[in-house]
Amino acid sequence: MEQQSQPFRDLVKIIIDMASAQDTTTILEILLDGALKLVKASNGSIARLDYRTGKINVVHSEPYLESFDSGIDWGKGVMGKALKDNQPQIVKDIASSPWCDIYIKHWESMRSEITVPIVLENIPVRIESEYHSGSDADDERVMITNNGVKRIGVLNIESSKLHAFSKEDEEVLLPLARYAAIRIDAIEFDQKLAELRVKENEITESGKEFDQIIETVINSIIEILDFEVVNISLVNLTKGVIETKYVEGISPAKRQKFIKEAVHRLDSDDIQACIVREGNIEVPKRNDIRLDPILAKEFNHDLLIRVFMPMIEGSNNQVIGTLEAGYRRLYRKFIYERDVRILESFVNHAIQALEKIKAGLVDQVTHEIRNPIVGIRNHLDILIRRRDRLREDEIEAKLDDMLTDCDILFYQVQQLEVMMGASSSQYLQIEDVVVWNEITKVARQLKPLLVDKGFPLNGIEYHFPTDSIKYLKIRTDRAKLNQVIYNLLMNAIKYAKDDPDEFRVNISITKTNHGKLIIKVKDNGIGIEEHEKEQIFHRGYRSEKVKSIVIGSGMGLSVSRDLITKLGGELIVSRNKPANNFQTEFQIIMSCDTMSTNRRFL
Description:
The chain is α+β, with helices and mostly antiparallel strands. The chain contains 16 helices and 21 strands. Helix 1 runs antiparallel to helix 2 and helix 14 (478-494) runs antiparallel to helix 16.
């Protein structure tokens, strides 16, 4: 009796040692050393499943294995079979059938093997909008009644003797592996929480802008929570749709195509629209009719298990979008409820940060809106009270000022619409547009602003390599192109140096040999720092240097780039260092494919 109980007393001691360990490496070392002693063997290894690659990688071995640095393919070998089937495997003779075709040699002269999966059981999983204790059954249509399983790794022991391992050995090693799984999962979950707290503090305290927060959220979900695909879709009330705005986990070659196609009406039966309407978190089944079959086929979504959750603003309980996160079903057929909860908590924290940014941007834009409104009201008041005493040129000047204020107001309202969830592009109205005409028209609109700031009217100058450039026309959306040109010129004026003698803006149009039309807007204002060359296009971004000079929302360049992209072009900063007395150069690059030189447009 004493002899029979000794292995179990040793087992308890090993479990106590694992309970006191504070890191996974130590736990795995205790597990392997203890397992070898329990079954009186000298060769063993522990492998972990890499969910991203499907490889089973040896992380600890005795003696050291050099030949398994590349890992074992999912389901291959005795180790892969044990982990995939979630069943211990006892191989009495590796040379016998069917093991001779399965066995992967680890050490020389081995004859038998015992392999035990390191898995966590009894895990609640999310299925549709409810959580269950689920099995890894292949048929999800069957009501889930068994325990959820999370594969962590596999314990493998080998011997140079035939029939070295028995059922009794399995009964000793199995609880040891199960407890190791519990400890490893607990430690790694705590690590995930700690890393997410760091990211949350980073989001809250670092003054990140809108797009930067979204980028941090997506990267954290992939790197910390191990999801492979993340898609953030936003509600567009103007168009009545929910549309993808940010996605990772799709190849760069397909990303823009996905963003273009992943648009669904809010009144449709698509899963995204349902999440917006009902506000529930869901993990749909593979055959859910609400999943877009076209996207699933083209982008391999049918291979994923995905969770969809609403992005809800706490201040008004309004769903502003959805977050979709998923990974391949091959290794995990369910999404664990605990991962859903930690994901929900992290996303809610990010939404709170976005709400604060949005509130601040709205305050800034509404402040900017007041100025043109006050200007219009003051001019109207003068015209009403003194219209009989004003000269014709004075009346014209007041009307010009009012038109300028109206243009500024219209532009700022469009920015406000973007902040409130409307699309910056909406529907395009394509027509023939002479680019030169639009540039000069916008410049004329801004003349009263130049006068108000004391800048010379000839401070805006034009350059064209040939007169024919003036007659170039392109099929595009006139209003959208005007808005971009307006924003670039407005910024050149807003961020100009105070000295009127130094004010200078140069606008040029060129046509390249590669079929591109380039509109350049150069100024000699305060300039842009090198590290801010891309940040200035992030929604809501404003550098510390400009914050102290001019009040603004930081939305203009973000909206402008979005508009030009929708028009099939690019908006870039090509120069942010002094050159020919110019500090900054923006370029609007558009295709010349649809252009001609028709003088009738002048």
